[in-house]
Amino acid sequence: MTGTLINAGAIILGGIIGVFFRSRLPERFVKITFQAIGLFTLFLGVSMALKGSELLIIIFSMVLGGILGEWMKLDKRINAMGEKMKARLKSSSGNFAEGMVTAFLLYCMGSLTILGAIEEGLGNPPNLLLAKSLLDGVSAIALSAALGYGVLFSIVPLLIYQGGLTLLTYTLGDYFNQALINELTAVGGLMLLGLGLSILEIKKINVTNFIPALIVVVVLGYLFI
């Protein structure tokens, strides 16, 4: 899990730099930064979604995953966790939970997360996660400048998800073929599209509730691909 730990450290460093500049930037600069992040998220989501070819697996994964997430009330639970962290830290940030959840989704739904975790889980050097660490560190500056301290605490769910995927690959590595990876990437891309729409305030989508889709697509992919 070396790559994931380095990734988390890069986010913390970038987040600290972004928070430092946040209090010094005029509101209009923060707003345009946020819009740039939203547009990039849409672009990244489209490019990832197009990698999938098994449309039935993708749609069933999203539907079943969304229903599971809604049943478990993931969105409310994760936001509540963010608010508890905010209270313990005595932070005055009004969008602490939003920053944590948005950053986590952006950092963890990308193809580099999936491929990098699989690469390290198979026993190879974590080259992709090191490259991802550099990108995430830079984007953390922009995200924390727009959303504040919550971005730094996105490393908590990141360690659980990305580290868990690495350990899962270490255990079940032989089952992660390229076709399955493509469908997993596509589902992550659709989630990023939803996140981009929410960031740009086009349509509020509870993307967090779709997280179980990442598990459903692995199961369906294993059974039918």
* Count of strand segments: 0
Computed structural class: mainly alpha
* Tally of helical segments: 10
CA(first)-CA(last) distance: 28 Å
How much of the sequence lies in strands comes to under 5%
Which spans have pLDDT < 50 for at least 5 consecutive residues?
none
Question: Share of helix among residues?
Answer: over 70%
Anisotropy-based shape: globular
Radius of gyration using CA atoms only: 17 Å
Main sheet record: none
Tags for this entry?
78% helix; globular; 225 residues; mainly alpha; 10 helices; 0% strand
Question: What would you say this structure looks like, in words?
Answer:
It is a single chain. This protein is mainly α. The protein has one domain (2-224). It has helices at residues 2-22, 27-49, 55-72, 74-89, 96-108, 111-121, 127-147, 155-172, 178-199, 213-224. Helix 3 packs antiparallel against helix 10, helix 5 packs antiparallel against helix 7 and helix 9 runs antiparallel to helix 10. The longest helix is centred in the first third of the chain and has 23 residues, at 27-49. The protein is globular and about 50 Å long.
